[in-house]
Each structure stands twice: as C-alpha cells, then as structure tokens.
C-alpha cells in the first residue's frame, strides 16, 4: 500500500490558539502546487484521508480536495503536532488490513509528519518537512516495513 504524509500549508503566525491558526493564501497556493505534482505521479484518489482537527490542516485538505478524491474522510485527533506517531501508524496499519486499503493520505503537522514517516520507513531518520511537503511511502502492513518512494517540496 501507499501511505502519503503531508504537512499543512503555510499558516498565519497568530491566532487565539495554535489549533485556530489559518492557512495563508500562499499556503493554499503551495498546497495546490504539491497536489498537482502528486497528481503527475499518478495519485489523486485515496481510499482514506485522515486530517488533523486543527484549522490549518482542515483548510489544507479543503484546498487540495479540489484535485484529490477521498473515498473516506476522517478527522483524526491523534495527528496534531505532538500526537503519538507510533499510535497513529498502528491505527493506519490496522485500518489498511481490515479495510484492504491501497492508498492513505494523512494531513498533519511538524514535528509529527517526520516521526510518522520514520514509523512507516524502516531505519529512517525523521525527515524535515517544509510547509505543504508531501512524502510517499510504500508500506507493507503485514511485515510492518516500508520504503520512502519520493518527497515533494513546494
């Protein structure tokens, strides 16, 4: 299966809380550009999309959903900035096995996106993600091993 891990687009620096920070127009443009690059790689349909409840992640999905299609969409509380990468990767792996998923997209935050990538890819140091960065991992839920196929930057 393929697991896609995306960091939200550029967000405003200030809001009433971190969870309420909104995407900037530049963040929307970056996210669209990355989605187009992913589409050129042959991916635009996802069996499952998991999105952080934070506004900037929700707005990133809203922006890229103009190019992408989700068969199932869930807001997933465990993929906020300081979520548990081990728990989130186990959840994705379990869902993949139960629902026979081929493609999953997670829209999340730093630092979690790097740790998530490292959970799916054997012996990988957590990579840095710029805003709107997107990684594609080939992952085998049975063996729990994966390989980083590519990483798109805006």
From TrEMBL:
Keywords for the protein's UniProt record, in alphabetical order: Hydrolase
Segments forming a coiled coil: none
Listed Gene3D superfamilies: Phosphoglycerate mutase-like
Cross-referenced InterPro entries: His_Pase_superF_clade-1 (IPR013078), His_PPase_superfam (IPR029033), Mito_Ser/Thr_phosphatase (IPR051021), SixA (IPR004449)
NCBIfam families the UniProt entry points to: sixA
PANTHER family listed in its UniProt record: PHOSPHOGLYCERATE MUTASE-RELATED, SLL1549 PROTEIN
Protein name: Phosphohistidine phosphatase SixA
Native source organism of the sequence: Vibrio algarum
